[in-house]
Design goal:
Blueprint (H helix, E strand, L loop, with lengths): L1 E9 L3 H10 L3 E8 L2 E9 L3 H10 L3 E4 L6 E6 L9 H12 L3 E6 L13 H7 L4 E5 L4 H7 L10 E5 L12 E4 L11 H27 L6 H8 L3 H4 L7 E4 L2 E4 L3 H9 L2 E2 L2 E2 H4 E5 L7 E5 L2 H11 L1
Parallel strand pairs: 5-6, 5-7, 7-8, 8-9
Antiparallel strand pairs: 1-3, 1-4, 2-3, 10-11, 11-15, 12-13, 14-15
Helix pairs in contact: 1-2, 3-6
Length: about 300
């Protein structure tokens, strides 16, 4: 069994960490560098955790568990205006990052107003590119209950966060966390920090169910293995955007233009198969600067092989 953990510390002597990850047969899932600080999310065999932790301590870093590692989550507010994009949304996104997830903050173009709130098909398609989404609604119960109807056509797991506890909307989302509404200051007090942890723990439980469903029909290849294969592709190495490759539970996002690199990606060799045969490769709905790869399950690949035969 593999365990996901995060190193947080300085860049000094970090080559020792990467060497032991390689030695134990582990995988670097995510690597972020800021000035002289380094954050590394890794997947390593459980029996080698102690050895890796010792190296992390020796080079002056700390190790912590990251249950949401390998996921990308959207945190969505009704609009980007200050009336609807309060501090709690940023605090929630930051808490999910502490749990290992990559997060994106979004606002709807027409989410304002109980009677006029809308969510376009394009916006739903963008949200559906992520592993899950958190919708932060607000302080008014009737408004939250009305706007919750917007979530019915979202296909990824959704956690609804609001001030009051809404009624009659349980079928629109996977979980509801109340007690977090609009406020004009950061969530700093102990009760507020506890609420942020509750939101992150709820998302962890929701994604645990999604992971269990994927285990029933496993992916043909793990996304981390595809990431390893593509790490030496020069356009990805030269990409200056943060985290050029982001892991998803069922694939990954690559931050290079689809139109320029589609043909190369489709023909990448993955255990004797073309990547284009074992995964769906499509442009992101945000723009043409990102590529979404959804890996097919083993049963899907087997069915397609039978059809071709």
């Amino acid at each position: 069994m593999f365990e996901v953990m995060m190193y947080d510390g300085g860049i000094y002597r970090s080559e020792e960490l990467f060497e032991i990850i390689e030695d134990v047969g582990g995988v670097v899932l995510q690597k972020n560098r800021s000035s002289q600080m380094l954050s590394v999310v890794m997947s390593i065999p459980e029996e080698d955790r102690e050895a890796v932790s010792k190296v992390c301590t020796d080079i002056g870093g700390v190790v912590k568990s990251v249950p949401l590692a390998g996921t990308e989550i959207a945190v969505v507010g009704p609009t980007l205006g200050r009336h609807h994009m309060p501090h709690p949304i940023c605090d929630i996104a930051e808490e999910l990052r502490r749990y290992g997830s990559i997060t994106v903050v979004m606002g709807l173009a027409r989410g304002r107003g109980k009677a006029t709130a809308q969510m376009s098909a394009e916006e739903r398609a963008i949200v559906d590119e992520y592993d899950a989404a958190i919708f932060v609604m607000g302080n008014f119960k009737t408004c939250v209950e009305s706007k919750a109807e917007l979530l019915r056509d979202v296909h990824v797991p959704v956690v609804l966060v609001s001030g009051p506890q809404p009624e009659g909307v349980d079928d629109t989302c996977e979980a509801i966390v109340s007690g977090v509404g609009r406020k004009a200051s950061r969530m700093r007090t102990p009760p507020e920090r506890d609420k942020l942890e509750e939101i992150a723990d709820t998302m962890e439980a929701v994604l645990r169910d999604k992971k269990a469903s994927l285990e029933e029909d496993p992916l043909f290849v793990h996304p981390a293995e595809v990431k390893q294969i593509l790490e030496n592709y020069e356009p990805i190495n030269m990409c200056l955007r943060p985290a050029p490759m982001v892991l998803h539970l069922d694939g990954l996002r690559i931050k290079i233009p689809y139109s320029e690199h589609r043909e190369y990606l489709e023909n990448v060799d993955v255990y004797g198969r073309r990547l284009g045969d074992v995964a769906y490769i499509s442009p992101s709905r945000i723009d043409d600067s990102s590529i979404i790869i959804r890996i097919k399950t083993r049963s899907q690949v087997a069915d397609e092989d039978r059809l071709r035969a």
